[in-house]
Design goal:
Layout (H helix, E strand, L loop, with lengths): L1 E8 L18 E9 L2 E5 L22 E3 L2 E3 L84 E3 L6 E3 L61 E7 L3 E5 L2 E5 L2 E6 L3 E7 L13
């Protein structure tokens, strides 16, 4: 038996279509000093949610959850299409633009609830003449509301150094701009940027392996972009186990690290306990 540290990043949500919103990033959870014994452990890596298909009111799909050792990080919520609210998730999707009525709210982050929080809310869109869409929530920051015709920026993610190098995970997708506005930038940590112009262009998908939310398509019924897939990373002191297999195996200092960008199995082999002593007899 020994302790392991592990990072879970869910898949990012897809962006909404037309003057829609950015998808929420996958939730990010970092668990330290979790006690495990040797054995086979299922690792699930959440895929990115699909971007909304071409159309006026279409919202992006949610990302998939990532899990190991009984813990999970939720996928990001899909970004709202025109005049649609964002979906809840590890990080909430943004609210869609279009329409001059009440603003369309972003989805709630940290859903289901974890402590510490795995992500933040999406930003609001709409609610004015020719408004942009809201930014998707990030793992470390809420998505920004639209500003005038401009799309909201996706919320930034969080940095983690479990691999020995600092990497930022879980950036929210940017909201789309009206034809005359400025696209919302993706959040740091793999968030895709929103579209801009008529017809909309320039939107990008969330980054795979970082759980970034997808950018919204843009004006004139342009489809949203997909969210990025998540990742699961497990590390332990090399001296604590006889062997470990699964994922991409690397080392950093005294640690062995297993990185999973797709679902698989982590196998850990305990060291023999104690010292065996044999007594021989001479004849």
């Amino acid at each position: 038996m020994a302790n392991v540290d592990f990072l879970l990043v869910g898949g990012g949500g897809g962006g909404g279509s037309n003057v829609g919103a950015g998808g929420g990033a996958g939730g990010v959870r970092y668990i330290q000093n979790h006690s495990v014994t040797g054995g086979d452990y299922a690792v699930v890596v959440g895929g990115g949610g699909a971007g909304a298909p071409t159309g006026l009111f279409n919202s992006g799909s949610a990302g998939g959850a990532s899990s190991v050792f009984g813990y999970s990080a939720a996928g990001g919520g899909g970004g709202g299409g025109t005049e649609r609210t964002g979906a809840n998730g590890g990080c909430g999707g943004g609210g869609g633009g279009g329409g001059s009525g009440s603003p369309y709210s972003g989805g709630a982050g940290n859903t289901p609830s974890t402590t510490p929080s795995q992500g933040y809310n999406g930003g609001a869109g709409g609610g004015a003449s020719n408004p942009g869409g809201g930014g998707g929530g990030g793992a470390g920051q809420a998505g920004a509301d639209r500003s005038g015709n401009n799309g909201g920026k996706g919320g930034d993610g969080v940095a983690n150094s479990i691999t020995g190098t600092s990497v930022t995970y879980g950036g929210g997708g940017g909201g789309a701009a009206w034809s005359t506005g400025t696209r919302g930038a993706g959040g740091a940590g793999g968030g895709g940027q929103g579209g801009q112009g008529n017809p909309g262009s320039g939107s990008t998908a969330g980054t795979n392996g970082l759980g970034g939310g997808g950018g919204s398509g843009g004006y004139d019924l342009v489809a949203g972009k997909s969210g990025g897939s998540g990742i699961v990373i497990v590390r332990y002191l090399t001296a604590d186990f006889k062997e470990g297999t699964g994922g991409t195996k690397t080392t950093s200092g005294n640690y062995t690290i297993h990185s999973f960008t797709s679902s698989g199995t982590l196998t850990l082999v305990d060291k023999p306990s104690g010292n065996a002593i044999f007594f021989g007899t001479n004849f």
